[in-house]
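For reproducibility, we list the full input for the protoporphyrin IX containing FE complex.
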Amino acid sequence: MVVAIVGLGILLLGCLFYYWNDIIYALPATFRCSSAGGGRRSRAPLPPGYMGFPFIGEMFNFLYYFKFLGGPDDFINAKRAKYGGTGGLYRTHLFGSPAIIVCSPAANKFVFQSEANFQLEWPAVEIVGKSSLVAVHGESHTRIRSLVVKTTNQPDALRRIAEMVQPRIVHALQTWAKKGRILGYHEAKKVTFENIGNYFVSIEPGTQLDVLDKLFAGMVKGIRSFPINLPGTAYHHAIQCRKKAVAIFQEELDKHRDGFASQKTRNDLMDGLMNLKDEEGKQLSDVEVVDNIVSLVVAGYESTSISIMWALYYLAKYPSVIRKLQEEHSSICTNGDQYVTSDDIQKLQYTTKVVEETIRLANTASIIFRKARNDVDYKGFRIPKGWTVMCWVRYHHTDPENFEDPLCFNPDRWNEPPKPGSYMVFGGGSRICAGNMLARLQVAIFIHHLVQGYEWELVNPNAGLAYLPHQKPLDGVEINIRKI
Ligand code: HEM
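The corresponding predicted structure, in tokenized form, follows.
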């Protein structure tokens, strides 16, 4: 009898432990009567799913698919197999929060286009800055965004930046060829950061830029860590790094303002942000300029360098694509060391397809996060207020329903536009990437100089892939490279 009672107790405790998060989060949300869905009372059920153990939720399962199995999309496939399509919504508990996974193009479009219901909420506003584009909302967001995109994403800015980035890209490729063997990941990061130093704030390669690079590495680690600001934590270190980076940028801003700036510095991104005026003729404050420089570096640095790394990787694997590129690029310039303009690049249709295909497969922003500000009904399911919404966009890009033979690098698939909503590498809605044209341009310029002047091959063509924190080959894309 005693044994039976103890056994039953253990069983109950086990069940309680197993369903803890469902009991704590899903049950109350299921029975809460809300006015979701346009004012009428709603009792829509939560999307199906499993929320895992106390605190850790489904984190072990997530890591199992991302780190050990090497198949991040199978995390979703497993849910699809178990629960069905369900309009692309599943409930879970990840990164310390109850969450709804959103993984269909239509559902993600719905989330991105409803900023009133689904707010971008960076966990690390103290690191990127309270007045940076990613941290502000509503009218402030519209105002700052209109100024930021003028300096990063519009034709005049792109023309200027195309000129500014090429000397370092050409120099980097020459240096790589002299070394003979390089790690694509490290070298792509190096040249991207040198260019950021140059066209953001006119800082030349050297000690100050190396210091900034280390400070940004510290900040990015903090952004990915648990936000506990105690000495010894990555988050605390990131905040210290931010303070030092802000001091450097403030000093540069003072130099720009005092008129010590040379003609060259008057064309950089900091100068643009300082001098542009909004519709009411108001300029950004110093704090706004510096916060936005910091967040633009965070948003543009790793994403661009990883895309360049993937261009090196995929082109090495597909020599027929290189031959087509060489043919197209010889029409604008015959020598890999000559500079091209952004207008030249826009005309190159095949290159545009190669860039798009590279960025699709790079999946730099695999999951985009939002917070539900209200209870919202979608396709008969409830997304509860306060829960994290995980827009799992990488799933669209690797789903054969959207892209035939999705893991094959095939630029020609872009002869036709993708299915509506299936291509969301840059997000969507009012938060769509503010540097998407700039990212594409930099990858295209890099490809231009690479294919016109160099030949290279992968040292480990069968290297496995890592998926966290970003998707990249485990060997960091080691290549042998030489001048043609
Ligand atoms: C291939 C490279 C890149 C990819 C894949 C990428 C991807 C993204 C994505 C998915 C978002 C949306 C995030 C969200 O909705 O929460 C985003 C936002 C943003 N990106 Fe990019 N990005 C890239 C390059 C860049 C570059 C080069 C810059 C600028 C230097 C930049 C600046 C920004 C900014 C400022 C935002 C925030 C926009 C806002 O909140 O209004 N990105 N990016």
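The CA atoms of residues 179 and 200 lie 28 Å apart. The longest strand covers residues 89-94. Both points were considered when choosing residues for closer inspection.
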